[in-house]
Amino acid sequence: MKTRYIVTYDISDPDRLRRVHQTMKGAGEWLQYSVFRCDLSDREKQELLLDLSLRLNLREDQVLFIDLGPAEGQAAECIASLGRPYVVQERKATIL
């Protein structure tokens, strides 16, 4: 079962910021600058935490995981928007 997370980060170095952003692009949907929506199994979350920890300066940078609950059900509906509407982007495989 997957859990939906909002992952947000504050990275103080531009090179580390770029590396963290690239890592996050592989893990979830980019919502806004430094904010991603990720549906992760426990294993995927642990792998992401490890990947991120290798790219951070743990004294200067911060990554927050906000647990919204199971990806199916209420967590899918708990993001509200002010201004432009929030639209869930379905990921589709691209075959080359």
Write the layout of secondary structure elements.
Elements lengths: L2 E8 L3 H12 L3 E4 L2 E6 L1 H12 L8 E9 L26
Antiparallel strand pairs: 1-3, 1-4, 2-3
Can you walk through the features of this model?
By secondary structure, the protein is an alpha+beta fold. The chain has a four-stranded antiparallel β-sheet, covered by helices on one side. It contains two helices and four strands.
Q: Brief description of this entry?
A:
The protein has helices at 14-25, 42-53, and strands at 3-10, 29-32, 35-40, 62-70. With 96 residues, it is an alpha+beta fold. A four-stranded antiparallel sheet has the order 2-3-1-4, with helices on one face.
User: What's the story with the biggest beta sheet?
Assistant: 4 strands, antiparallel
Overall 3D shape: globular
Rg value:
14 Å
Q: Indicate the proportion of strand residues.
A: 25-35%
C-alpha termini separation: 29 Å
- The number of distinct β-strands equals 4
SSE class: alpha+beta
Helical amount among residues, as a percent range? 25-40%
Oligomerization status of the protein chains: single chain
Order of helices and strands: EHEEHE
Strand order of the largest sheet: 2-3-1-4
Query: How many H/I helices?
Result: 2
> Whole-number average pLDDT?
86
Low-pLDDT stretches: none
